[in-house]
Design a protein that fits this description.
Blueprint lengths: L2 H30 L3 H14 L4 H13 L3 H14 L4 H17 L1 H22 L3 H14 L4 H13 L3 H17 L11 H6 L6 H9 L4 H15 L3 H4 L3 H6 L6 H11 L9 H10 L3 H41 L3 H8 L1
Length: 340
């Protein structure tokens, strides 16, 4: 990596950290002013930038508890403890929330604890490659509570390992839907490029761009470009933001990275500045399949330009007909005869 790339990455990291601090402090200010919903929204934005900060989870959890969202608070405290196992205040607040749940509804808490156990044991079985039994545990958890994104996500991974691709896709999409509806979009940052591509959510695009732009492996870049290609079929306008990063990957040394970047670009509306880079691939790429894809893109661009020119000529033709009519008072048939 050259010095310019190192400086660019360092600048991006510094900018990202400043954005996180801005949203985190905004959450603190909102809470002080009594705007608890605004505080939660600000901390959610902060966590979408840095999903590994236990203090943002803690503060959001405390505020959720104050608003009566005890389940959401419990999940945030669990996440804070997972990241920072010695976070004593998080343990204290979690115990308070659990006692409150027990006071409000003893049966519900038992169900919640059962759901947690099924999810945890399912994850253990998944890690130990006992996929069929893992699915059974996630099924049990979802029977008790059909709105657990984590259970859908891990069941999707289990199903994919058993080559149940369609079932896996359905579960990935349901998990992503629940995360987005519950304002837990930052969790998508932990998904692989393949999983993000199957999410069918436009919120996944920014995380895929992270894979295209960051210190990612060849395989992660290839999968991220492939995922953009999938999402572009449903969210073409939102995927336009990925164009600069896809173009950057055309210079990647791995031919399949270039291949999938080209495939994604073929579905997007490319700026004029991209034509030279596509043309260079069409002429010089060592792999024939990449040259072929680039040539198809160039042909598509040329066709669109020809269609636009045709539409413009037709408008000019109609204007000319109007001029003849005003100038000579000819009928429509007479106008056409005169043109011929």
């Amino acid at each position: 990596m050259n010095a310019n790339n190192s400086d660019k990455i360092l600048h991006q990291q510094q900018l990202k950290q400043r954005c996180f601090v801005t949203y985190f402090n905004l959450g603190v200010d909102c809470r002080k002013r009594g705007d608890k919903h605004g505080a939660i929204k600000a901390w959610t934005e902060a966590l979408s930038i840095n999903p590994n900060n236990p203090y943002a989870y803690y503060d959001r959890g405390v505020t959720k508890a104050e608003l009566g969202d005890y389940i959401g608070a419990l999940e945030d405290f669990n996440q804070a403890i997972h990241i920072h196992p010695r976070y004593s205040n998080a343990y204290l607040q979690r115990d308070k929330v659990r006692r409150k749940l027990l006071e409000d509804n003893n049966t519900f808490l038992i169900d919640f604890e059962d759901v947690f156990k099924f999810c945890q044991f399912g994850k253990y079985l998944l890690q130990n490659k006992d996929y069929k039994e893992a699915i059974k545990n996630f099924d049990q958890a979802l029977q008790l509570n059909p709105n657990i994104a984590e259970a859908y996500y891990n069941r999707a991974k289990s199903r994919y390992k058993l080559k149940d691709r369609q079932g896996a896709i359905e579960d990935f999409q349901q998990a992503a839907k629940l995360l987005c509806e519950d304002n837990k979009i930052e969790t998508l940052a932990k998904w692989t490029p393949f999983e993000l591509g199957e999410s069918n959510r436009k919120e996944a695009i920014s995380y895929l761009i992270g894979y295209l732009a960051g210190n990612s492996s060849y395989e992660q870049r290839r999968l991220a470009a492939s995922a953009i290609q999938k999402l572009a079929k449903t969210f073409p306008n939102d995927c336009q933001s990925a164009i600069p990063y896809l173009l950057e990957n055309l210079s990647n040394s791995a031919p399949q990275v270039r291949q999938y970047a080209l495939k994604a670009l073929s579905l997007l509306s490319l700026p004029d500045s991209a034509i030279a880079e596509i043309a260079a691939i069409a002429e010089k790429d060592p792999k024939e399949y990449n040259r072929t894809i680039a040539q198809v893109i160039l042909k598509k661009i040329t066709t669109i330009e020809d269609e636009q020119e045709y539409e413009m000529n037709w408008v000019e033709y109609e204007d000319y007909l109007g001029f003849i009519e005003r100038d000579s008072g000819l009928t429509s048939l007479q106008k056409i005869d005169r043109l011929n």
